[in-house]
Amino acid sequence: MSPRARIDDNAAWGRASPRLSVLIPFLRDDPSRLIEALSAVPTPGAELVLLDDGTGDADLGERLKTRAGALPLPVRLITLPANEGRSRGRNRLAQAARGRHLLFLDSDMLPDAPTFLSDWLALIDAEDPAVAFGGFSLKQAPTDPRFAVHRAMAERSETLDAAARSLAPEKYVYTSNLLVRRDVFDAEAFDPAFTGWGWEDVEWAMRASRRWSVRHVDVPATHMGLDETAALAGKYEQSAANFARVVDRHFDVVSTYPSYRAARRLKRVPGLGMIRPWFRRLALSEAAPVSVRAFSLRLYRAALYADRV
């Protein structure tokens, strides 16, 4: 562990021999609700490893230390003075973990069932999977109108059950609820060349799926962190360079995705650079129906990607 990182362990950490390490990175978010939900039901064999990826909030750090100290689960809190990014941060978490299986869980998730951790441990005992994705839902997510576009988009293409996800196993893999066996992660870590937001988890799954089976199961958690439309558009703008990297490395796979096909079709549209901002404006227009706004935001994403294909 780098000397730049501050490490705080609770009392349960030193005497634990975990089989499952739950890895939770965060940046400016407070994961207290998540770690308390994970600790609500005694789950021998699990530990929590948290990474503050450069938030720079001493008060938040102290609150988390206090909460972790009261939890029965072993907890390690790693605090970085500067942000390292999504890939590097998750690689660092894996290095700090002690379990044979690693469960990557985003800080804005919330288990849908009190048996969440025990369900993962039961799967480990029964199958010892190399890679498994548990899925996510919007069961507990906020229903504010300002999140309506993100909700509509997620319900259309992301909150799928295991049977649907299994049709394209590498495509529906996100670090929001991802189980990886340690030997697999030792061989295939996240690529630190991916910066900003998006595609680093799917690219990882493309690499891993060439060597190991990707299992899809229904052990869901709610994605609580829905974005307002402008913030989601900003994330898509960040993701264009990462999308290009995936196309370059895994053309055989990504060329079958609707996002790639849409980008290729839009690339042939004359004056796309002038049209593209209008897709964004319509997506942000609260006067338009949510379905129209969501479709326009998908077009905006495809138009951004068109410059990269």
Structure in words:
The chain has 13 helices and eleven strands. The chain has two domains: 6-226, Spore Coat Polysaccharide Biosynthesis Protein SpsA, Chain A (Alpha-Beta Complex), CATH 3.90.550.10; 228-309, no CATH class. The model has no long low-confidence stretch (mean pLDDT 94). Helix 11 (258-267) crosses helix 13 and helix 12 runs antiparallel to helix 13 (290-306). Strand 2, helix 1 (32-39) and strand 3 (46-53) form a beta-alpha-beta unit. An eight-stranded mixed beta sheet has the order 1-4-3-2-5-9-7-10, with helices on both faces. It has a three-stranded mixed beta sheet with strand order 6-11-8. The two termini are 39 Å apart. It has 309 residues and is of the alpha/beta class. The protein has helices at residues 32-39, 58-69, 86-96, 116-127, 148-157, 162-165, 182-187, 200-209, 229-249, 251-254, 258-267, 272-284, 290-306; strands spanning 6-9, 20-26, 46-53, 75-80, 101-105, 109-111, 131-133, 136-137, 177-181, 214-216, 221-223.
Topology:
Blueprint lengths: L5 E4 L10 E7 L5 H8 L6 E8 L4 H12 L5 E6 L5 H11 L4 E5 L3 E3 L4 H12 L3 E3 L2 E2 L10 H10 L4 H4 L11 E5 H6 L12 H10 L4 E3 L4 E3 L5 H21 L1 H4 L3 H10 L4 H13 L5 H17 L3
Parallel strand pairs: 2-3, 2-5, 3-4, 7-10, 8-11
Antiparallel strand pairs: 1-4, 5-9, 6-11, 7-9
Helix pairs in contact: 5-13, 9-13, 11-13, 12-13
First-last Cα distance: 39 Å
Query: What is the 3D form?
Result: globular
Count of DSSP E strands? 11
CATH class of the largest domain: Alpha Beta
- Tally of separate domains: 2
Q: What structural class do helix, strand and pairing data support?
A: alpha/beta
Helix count equals 13
